[in-house]
Amino acid sequence: MLKIRLERVGRKNDPSFRVVLTESKNAAKSGKFLKVLGHYDSRKDTIRLEGEEIKSWISKGAQVSDTMHNLLISNKILEGKKKNVLPRKRPITKEPTTNDLQQTTQSEQIATNEAETQSESQPESAEEEAKAQESPVAKISSQESLVPVPEEREASEGEEKT
């Protein structure tokens, strides 16, 4: 796909640009182009464009870069609206202070404690209660998991020792 874009040719701290027709896969600074369609010097604000050739290449299917599109509109070679070439601004978000962070962590801890106490006080189902009563288990408070206690082995080991 052909593209009409700007190619920088000026010295360091003295930018000037060529308007070139190039393959879109070529890098901007590669120097590979098919045709020079004009010049643009941003410091002196001089623009020389070959309007008829640019229009003919656009009609043949060449795409125009956003900045070049805006230059063509400002020079009245093309008609339409200018495109926004600046990056989008993100909305300003208030950074949380240390007091805000402390208040949110305290409120989260209170909410989790309330949820735990409600879940412990309400039995989940009758079947789970029956299973819990049938097998002897010990509850480990730090992990909150059920671990079976081997009562038969403890009794048999104690009898052998005496």
Automatic annotation (TrEMBL):
Source organism, top-level taxon: Bacteria
Entry annotated with the keyword Ribonucleoprotein: yes
PANTHER family (UniProt xref): 30S RIBOSOMAL PROTEIN S16, SMALL RIBOSOMAL SUBUNIT PROTEIN BS16M
Any one of the GO CC terms: cytoplasm
Name the UniProt record assigns to this protein: Small ribosomal subunit protein bS16
Family listed: Belongs to the bacterial ribosomal protein bS16 family.
Segments for region (Disordered): 83-162
Lineage, highest ranks first: Bacteria, Candidatus Zambryskiibacteriota
Gene (UniProt): rpsP
GO biological process: translation
Compositionally biased region (Basic and acidic residues): 150-162
GO MF assignments: structural constituent of ribosome
Record field: compositional bias (Polar residues): 95-112
Sequence ranges of Low complexity compositional bias: 114-124
Gene3D superfamilies attached to this UniProt entry: 3.30.1320.10
Keywords: Ribonucleoprotein, Ribosomal protein
